[in-house]
């Protein structure tokens, strides 16, 4: 890694480096406790790290942008070239400042879908891979523990869901186990009791009998009333027992057994 020292027009010291023959780097002083690391190529400053030496331990703030001219030859490929440039910039920064504790950045990666509209890449990577692009490429981790838990929950939910356009149905709740024999017997008994109860309630009242049975019932009632009136005219409400017995005897035995003479 070659290096040379230089001075900016405002008098601030600036050192220049070449990283692996692919990228140019420079470290610029921005005060007694501030440094700025710039990594790029034909175009400078594709990766910038602002180092604050006043903090204990020191911290850095990262900013990344892509351009085809970000390497020494001006032919930086998108994707693979950006990853190589980012790793080289971080390795160079930690080598220049061994006391540096961490480098912070805000994931604002996006892709332009239509003119004037940007599409955030971080949510898409979380949904597809469970990690953001920076987590997969340079091993970055969320700064806040609460944010980390929320991101993990979001990623697990997305990974467990069926992919868009698939016919897979979401998981349903567990079905209840089939009832045992005792429960089945109790259910059958309850069904029979309910059926009997409903059958009893379906009994038609007497005044709502169909037409034929209603006529027969009226006929029987008239006969009973006529028999009672005839018995009242004879003066006896009840026929003699012997006469009644003769009526139910064998055919032809019309005599009254109680009054027949006894033969010896």
Characterization of this structure:
This protein has 264 residues and is an alpha+beta fold. Among the domains are: 1-105, no CATH class; 107-163, no CATH class. 38% of the residues lie in helices and 19% in strands. The protein has 7 helices and 9 strands, in the order ββββββαβββαααααα. The protein has helices spanning 80-96, 122-129, 133-138, 145-160, 181-201, 211-234, 241-247; strands spanning 2-7, 13-19, 23-29, 34-40, 47-52, 59-64, 102-104, 110-114, 117-120. A 7-stranded mixed beta sheet has the order 1-2-3-4-5-6-7, covered by helices on one side. A two-stranded antiparallel ribbon has the order 8-9. α2 crosses α4. The termini are far apart. The relative contact order is 0.05. Residues 239-264 have low confidence and may be disordered.
Numbering strands along the chain, what is their spatial order in the largest sheet? 1-2-3-4-5-6-7
| Assembly level | single chain
What share of the residues lie within helices? 25-40%
For the sheet with most strands, the description reads: 7 strands, mixed
Shape: rod-shaped
Secondary-structure element order, N to C: EEEEEEHEEEHHHHHH
The termini sit apart by 159 Å
Strand content: 15-25%
Mean pLDDT: 77
Task: Label the structural class.
Answer: alpha+beta
Number of beta strands: 9
Count of DSSP-assigned helices: 7
Query: What are the segments in which pLDDT stays under 50 over at least 5 consecutive residues?
Result: 239-264
- Cα gyration radius (Å): 53 Å
């Amino acid at each position: 890694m070659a290096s040379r020292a230089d001075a900016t027009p405002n008098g601030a010291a600036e050192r220049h480096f070449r990283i692996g023959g692919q990228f140019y780097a420079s470290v610029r002083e921005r005060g007694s406790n501030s440094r700025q690391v710039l990594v790029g190529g034909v175009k400078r400053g594709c990766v910038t790290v602002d180092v604050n030496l006043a903090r204990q331990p020191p911290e850095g703030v990262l900013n990344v942008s892509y351009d085809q001219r970000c390497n020494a030859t001006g032919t930086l490929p998108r994707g693979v070239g950006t990853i190589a440039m980012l790793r080289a910039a971080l390795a160079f920064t930690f080598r220049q400042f061994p006391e540096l504790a961490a480098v912070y950045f805000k994931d604002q990666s996006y892709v332009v879908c239509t003119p004037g509209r940007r599409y955030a890449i971080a949510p898409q990577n979380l949904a597809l891979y469970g990690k953001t692009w920076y987590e997969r490429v340079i091993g970055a981790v969320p700064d806040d523990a609460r944010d980390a838990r929320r991101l993990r929950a979001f990623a697990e939910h997305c990974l467990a869901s069926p992919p868009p356009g698939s016919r897979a149905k979401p998981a349903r709740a567990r079905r209840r186990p089939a009832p045992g024999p005792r429960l089945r017997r109790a259910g059958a008994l309850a069904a029979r009791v309910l059926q009997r109860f409903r059958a009893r309630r379906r009994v038609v009242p007497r005044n709502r009998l169909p037409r034929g049975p209603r006529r027969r019932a009226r006929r029987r009632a008239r006969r009973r009333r006529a028999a009672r009136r005839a018995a009242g005219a004879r003066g006896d409400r009840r026929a003699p027992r012997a006469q009644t017995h003769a009526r139910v005897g064998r055919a032809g035995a019309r005599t009254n057994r109680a009054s027949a003479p006894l033969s010896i």
